[in-house]
Every structure is written in structure tokens, then in C-alpha cells.
Amino acid sequence: MTIDIKTVHKISRLARIKIEEESLESLKTDLNHILGWVEQLSEVNTSNIQPLYSMALDNMPRREDQITDGNYPEAILANAPEAEFGMFVVPKVVE
User: Residue 57: what pLDDT?
Assistant: First the structure.
């Protein structure tokens, strides 16, 4: 399968992307190269390969959750523009 300029126009319209006329030829070439790579993938024998349903491994090591408060509120509040009573002061957003 090859892509022509008319197909590039149709793809750009469907994707709602404005493509300048002078870049149509290079885009056509790039899309044809991509299709060539996809055709190469179809040549790979995958008959004995099991489908991959997830990238997550079921047996990944996990650590025990530890709940802490950090124990350094002064250092955190030092970064705030304004703090009062150990809390951040923010402008009122609901009237």
C-alpha cells in the first residue's frame, strides 16, 4: 500500500491538522516509510508467541506501606507564601 497526496490531504482533514502545501511531499514520503515498516512487522512469525495482556508483572516485589506525617511541617511551610497556625493560607475561592 502506498499513500498519495490525495490521501495525505484526507488524513490531515480527518485529523484536523493544517498541512502546508510545500510539506505534503515529504509527509507523503514519511508515511510511506512508516507503512513499509509496518509491512515488515507482518513478516515476523508470531505463531508460537503468547499474547501479552499487560505490561505489569504479577510477581513484582512490594514494600510494606508505612504511614508517616513527615515530621517536618516547619520546613514544608517555609516554602509557602503565607502560613498561619501550622497551615497554608490560601485566598477564598467560594463566596
Answer: 62
C-beta of residue 73 within 8 angstroms of C-beta of residue 80:
no
CA distance 36 to 34: 5
As beta bridge partners, residue 88 has: 83
Question: Nearest-5° angle of CA 4, CA 44, CA 55?
Answer: 100
Residues 6+ apart with CB under 8 A from 35: 1, 2, 3
Does residue 56 have a pLDDT over 80? no
4 Cβ contact partners less than 8 Å away, ≥ 6 residues apart: 28
Q: Tell the burial category of 16 from Cβ atoms under 10 Å away from its Cβ (0-12, 13-18, 19+).
A: exposed
d(CA 55, CA 26) in angstroms, rounded, equals 35
Q: What is the pTM of this model?
A: 0.49
